[in-house]
Amino acid sequence: MTKRWVVVADQSKARIFTTEEPRGPLLELASLDNPLGREQEQELVSDRPGRSFDSKGQGRHAMGTAVDPAETETMRFARRIADHLQDACNEGRCKTLLLVAGPQMLGVLRKQLNTPDSVKVSAIDKNLGQYDARTIRTHLPERL
User: N or C end of the chain: smaller count of CB under 10 Å?
Assistant: First the structure.
């Protein structure tokens, strides 16, 4: 089995490809879906924020959340992708890893990923999730 992997991800889907040759076509190995990644923020929140009293005085105010719900869902999905990739790298199924994602997802994914030192990881800042394997291949370096 080949050890070159290409991961094309966005907030709602991650596709994992491999290639047999450095200049060969991409073959899809796996796909991870995140239906909540397509939801609007108001659909991710169940209700309005709670209310709280001030520590002194009679005032009341709405309590906010520290992290945006959509961002929380992106971090959760990136963790799921990273776990899948780390398992493959630890088992020796992947030796070269190319991450392809838009800027926000790429940043979150890089923070979550903790691969062994023996795995070469590189990244391309492009959102190619909506394309087929052949089109994605044209956007990647000639030699993987």
Answer: N
Cβ count near 29 (within 10 Å)? 17
The CATH number assigned to the domain with range 4-33+69-139 reads 3.30.420.60
Which DSSP state fits 91? T
The pLDDT of residue 129 is above 60: yes
Reference 7, options 89, 101, 95; nearest CA is 101
Whole-number Å distance between alpha carbons of 85 and 97: 9
Q: Which amino acid, one-letter code, is at 138?
A: T
The yes-or-no verdict on residue 45 having pLDDT over 70 is no
* Structural domain spans, the chain: 4-33+69-139
2-30 pLDDT tens trace: 689 999 999 999 999 999 888 889 999 99
Question: What residues contact 23, with CB distance under 8 A and at least 6 apart?
Answer: 142, 143, 144
The β-bridge relationship of strands 27-33 and 96-101 is: unpaired
Q: Under the phi-then-psi rule, with left for phi > 0, alpha for psi from -120 to 50, and beta for the rest, what region is 27?
A: beta
CB atoms within 10 A of CB 78: 25
